[in-house]
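A common beginner's mistake is to predict each chain separately and then try to dock the pieces by hand. The better habit, illustrated here, is to supply every component at once so that their relative placement is modeled jointly.
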Amino acid sequence: MPTDTLSAPPRRFKAGSLPLAVTPQQLSQIGLYFDRFAITFGLYKNARYQDRIFPFGVIPRVFEADEFRRLEDGLAQRVTALNLFLADLYGPKKVVKDGIVPPEFIHASSGYLAACEGVKPAKGIYSHISGIDLVQASSGKWLVLEDNLRVPSGASYPLIGRQAFQSVCPPTFPRDKVADNQDYPALLLETLNHVNTGGINVLLSPGRYNSAFFEHAYLAERMGIPLVFGDELVCRDSKVYYKGLGGLLRVGALYRRLSDEFLDPQVFDAESLIGVPGLFDAYRQGNVAVLNALGNGVADDKGLYYFVPALVKYYLGEEPLLENAPTYLPHYPKDRAYVLENLGKLVIKDVAEAGGYGVMFGSKLTRDQKENLRNLIVKEPRRWIAQEVVDFRDLDVFQDGKIVPRKCDFRAYVLAGESVKVWKCGLTRYAMEAGSMVVNSSQGGGFKDTWVLQ
Amino acid sequence: MSPALSPAKADRLYWLGRYVQRGLGAAPGAPDLLDPTSPTSLPFNLTRAYENGFLLRDLLDNDVFSYLRMAMTKTETLKPGDYLVVREVHDALYAFWGILEEALFPEAEALCRWGRFLELWEARTLADQPTLAEAAWTQLVRCWETLGVGVPASQSVAEVETWFSASLGKDFSS
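With all components supplied together, the output reads:
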């Protein structure tokens, strides 16, 4: 190591209200930490899987205690309403009968599962682990961009990112000022135990080539529960069992990290080799808790998102504490006219897509592309939503040896067990290119830790 | 037997142990040392050890896994004649064995060591080193005692290999 690097003065930066000083040597060592422990978020490029070290922006997002408390209240309110909506939707459907949500937004949603009609999950909870994506507009206001109620990923990264920072820069980390985030595995386990129907807890992963496999293994390790693949489970007499070496072990709660359609080839995609035949029957009969419940996709559909503030009012009789980004539904003629007229300044999203796919910025489309999109919107209005482009805030990120501003969003994790709890941390994702708003990990974005001051 | 282990996990632990040990057995001066297609080379064995380890990350914990990663990363940068780096690969693999005891619960550790000492026992038996082979056999017996699986009927290489499959190959789906 050259002596000038070793003796270089610390880089000073401000993380929220916290002044921090980290030496250039420490900053580069954090990258080595990620490589040493193979902290990956895999990418598919040209249909080929690549293990990729998840870029870590080092400088944390910092929330003042009051600011995060306000968000916490809004997040808990939103997730409570969404859970009530799912229970209603797969049950009496009052929300449709009362005209709050048009029926086509239910039945046309790819996330709606007719098989789940009348099925009551353990303790009546549908979305146990919710990932709510927010952005902070340049005005400072927080807006919800998306609800993820199926298999939201990402919590493990700030969990291990915090360890990396504390290991590499122990004197810099203000231990007494920042809420400890290492409680996430315990909160998750508490949630699994709450709904467990009798038996062991397991984490079901689709396999080694899933982008978030690191997360699956890491969360299983931290919770002390087996990480399993579909062929290590078997169903007998409408119950799920883990094929342990000493014999079959009943599974009481299954934290699944694969999509609904692959869970049970007997009911959903018959070609799925990563699911468990008979799982749905065991779930339907209440013999196993599945986290998150099946059929949740209907509630985090981009089209349904439009109605969430109305759902909060409808189920809880309260004003929503969190706002959506201004959104238009081409399904409604008035909105459609506005969208077709203003395509160039809106962001258009295909409701069937996720992970940053199917998102188009009108300003970046050619004339032909715009025309093509207009035709598609007219032909299938239900398939699209349009949003005003929110100029969300830049935060400092350490990238390629420099501190640079990048657009960042924030995914909050809300756990619904005996009570609804918001994890005092979250995943701050950033775009790799200056000015870009594409922060999705599956699109090559990076992440930062999130410090909540106490 | 711990509830956390399925036959599939047990198999991976066993093979993890075997491939790591084979990596340690790769001779620095051998012409095929860096040939990924040769079953006695470093890349051949460490790629397989790493893949088993990757799938076992929930059991291995990050520290144990990091030594596999280190050995693998160094192997990827190896050039012919880099004998000191081969030594560093071996250091990482010895560190892997050293930390295993602290990180794994006894049955999982015994499965991994089963693979390790089977490799050693076979190699020493074939090299006609009876005293060293006997020492490896004693370690194997300790692994089997931890697992409560008994002891194979004879000390023939073929029999011990078959016996592993029979011990863990129970299919609970049938």
